[in-house]
Design goal:
Elements lengths: L1 H17 L3 E5 L4 E5 L8 E4 L5 E7 L4 E6 L4 E6 L13 E5 L6 E5 L4 E6 L4 E6 L6 E4 L6 E7 L4 E6 L5 E6 L6 E4 L6 E7 L4 E6 L4 E6 L6 E5 L5 E7 L2 E6 L4 E6 L7 E4 L8 E4 L21 E4 L6 E4 L22 E2 L4 E2 L16 E2 L2 E2 L6
Antiparallel strand pairs: 1-2, 1-24, 2-3, 4-5, 5-6, 6-7, 8-9, 9-10, 10-11, 12-13, 13-14, 14-15, 16-17, 17-18, 18-19, 20-21, 21-22, 22-23, 25-26, 27-28, 29-30
Amino acid sequence: MGSALLLVQLLVLLSAAHALPLLLFANRRDVRLVDAEGARGESAVVVSDLVDAAAVDFLYAEGIIFWTDVSEEAIKQTYWNLSSNYALGTGQTVVVSGLASADGLACDWLGKKLYWTDSETNRIEVANLDGTSRKVLFWMDLDQPRALALNPAQRYMYWTDWGEKPRIESAGMDGSNRKVLVNQNIYWPNGLTIDLLEHKLYWADAKLSFIHRANLDGSAREAVVEGILTHPFALTLSGETLYWTDWQTRSIHACNKQKGDNIREILSGIFSPMDIQVLDPSRQPYLQTPCGDNNGNCSHLCLLSPVEPFYSCACPTGVQLKPDGKTCKPETHPRCLDRRSGTVRVDLGPSEEVPERFCCVSNGAPSGCEDT
């Protein structure tokens, strides 16, 4: 790890000296950093010896990197900032376990929450940064949810679904105000990112070989790059530049976000490029929110909302909220969600109406939830 540490230090110094962002990307068997202009032509390993790293995000203020590992069915974290008490890429911690295929991951840097998609269980979930108070936000009308992007300043979340009815949707970060934004001329919507300054949504379609953008409500859609992409997967943005990973070229590419010109290759020869993020504080600007002060006085989850008072208190799935709207009732039943093999003890009780596949099964007998 010594040489890797030196390379990361060099990348950080070069990035600071030339005001260039760093690109953080998952590479299945590791998570890496590369400078955004690819000046050195090589990447630095942040954490190695992984199994199937897919989605990646970070909390810049605390120097934490999160990633999903599909094979290990978990979300993990490590520290990247060089002033932490941990050696680079060490101190790996399992944050959330019992997942099936977590393809999308996003960190709410203001509300201090993790959101993720699971394309096998067809759910979108949220939890505290340490994995506690896990809650299912959506399980109905999802087919193959993949990429996930957050806009905490406006308290909305966005995701792609490449199932039988491919589309891009939005909702409040508390699960309210769900809406389909794009469902025409869309097939395999993989990458998704938000331009926080210009309030634009960008997405990449691997089947139709394009990158398009639109307003955050889905209006004013226009093409950015068309016809020359091979298999774009993940997408991110910094300043005037878009960056994306491509499965077929096994590379990271870039272009101008406005006209799609100045297309260039940032890094090639990647083992298996997956998700990508710009690791820069400009991607996580600070803004005071109702959840930033004493967790909004919520006992468990404080979730940002587009509806006044612009947040809502929520409980782990299966646990009810008291009439005060702030406090969750004591847990009196076992909680669990199904997955491909066996029982996972996470957040499901007998009181909620949920699809049958959510029922807990232990030794062949249902427990802790009701058939609906």
